[in-house]
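Annex B.
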Amino acid sequence: MDVNGEQALLIRKQVKNVYLRIKPPDAHIEITAPARIPEAEVRRFAASKLGWIRSTRDRIARSERIFDEGAAGNGAGWGAASGSPSESTGGNGERLRRARAIIEEQLPGLVDRWVPVVGRGPSAITLRRMTTRWGSCTPATGRIRLNLELAWLEPRFLEYVLVHELTHLRASGHGDRFQGLMDSYLPGWRELRRALNRYVII
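Metal-dependent hydrolase: predicted structure tokens.
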């Protein structure tokens, strides 16, 4: 499918919404949409996201340069840790290494921004591919885990998940205290949560 001169792969599935992804390693556009939505409407949706498409492709290209130069390590002082051992082997390894490089490029700035706001910092942040959640936190140890798949979504979602997990260092569960803290840190967090939950981890 042509989207303002960009070629996109349109996949029809039994889903409720239209999902747009940039798929490494070649950064091609993949759109998943329900059969009931006309192609013209899908095309208009994709065209409205061209700015995000270009910025995401730029991040993928930067991660490729970092990977090629051998600079994508865990040098951040806040203690980034590696994920699953399968990341270094198999056909999916390069994709996961690029995802790691993209997130590691953004994380130091986000941590520096939000730790003073929340008032608690993680003992370590682990980046790994997860199939059922975007992030998790163990308050007893201070360890936060973030899903590598966040690399391929808009940066606002990585920020939201990080703030969400940092907040668990102050409030376990999702009760009134947690929600009140999130309201004070990130007033639009509920909208971000709804938008993020429209994505399916595959």
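The first strand starts at residue 2 and ends at 3. The chain has six helices and eight strands. Further annotation is deferred to the next reporting cycle.
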